[in-house]
Amino acid sequence: QVQLVESGGGLVQPGGSLNLSCAASGSAFSINTMGWYRRPPGKQRELVASITTGGITNYVDSVKGRFTIARDSAKNTVYLQMNNLKPEDTAVYYCQANYYNLYRTLKVGPFDSWGQGTQVTVSS
């Protein structure tokens, strides 16, 4: 069981920056890929960025060059640095983790865990 808690959202002007954080907690788990999704008002949820255990990253085209996903494995935390924010980036951002539960020598999964979301609003 993995619980995810996002933080760092808020209101910024176009061109501003925000750094989102997502901390994973649980008793015994091993996380594979972590990612950030977002749901703009009136739209479907989309994958923004993901990062593997080995540090391989992927981004949706609309944020390439502006957003950076990073991971601190020691803290079980993933970050999303968002620069040059645009009004169309306004959305609820959700952290996601793909993971295994660990029971001594047994790995059970994989499973997905989702955070509750943090609001990012880009407006002048």
Task: Give the class from helix and strand content and strand pairing.
Answer: mainly beta
- The portion of residues forming beta strands comes to over 45%
Radius of gyration: 15 Å
Number of beta-strand segments: 11
Helix content: under 10%
State the major sheet. 7 strands, mixed
Number of helices: 0
Low-confidence stretches: none
Shape: elongated
Order of helices and strands: EEEEEEEEEEE
Q: What is the rounded distance between the termini?
A: 40 Å
Give the integer mean of the pLDDT values: 96
Q: Can you walk through the features of this model?
A:
The protein is mainly β and 124 residues long. The protein contains no helices and 11 strands. Strand 5 and strand 6 form a beta hairpin. It starts with a strand and ends with a strand.
Question: How would you summarize the topology of this molecule?
Answer:
Elements: E1 3-7, E2 10-12, E3 18-25, E4 29-39, E5 46-51, E6 57-59, E7 67-72, E8 77-82, E9 91-103, E10 106-114, E11 118-122
Parallel strand pairs: 2-11
Antiparallel strand pairs: 1-3, 3-8, 4-5, 4-9, 5-6, 7-8, 9-10, 9-11
List its salient traits.
124 residues; mainly beta; seven-stranded mixed beta sheet; four-stranded antiparallel beta sheet; 11 strands; elongated
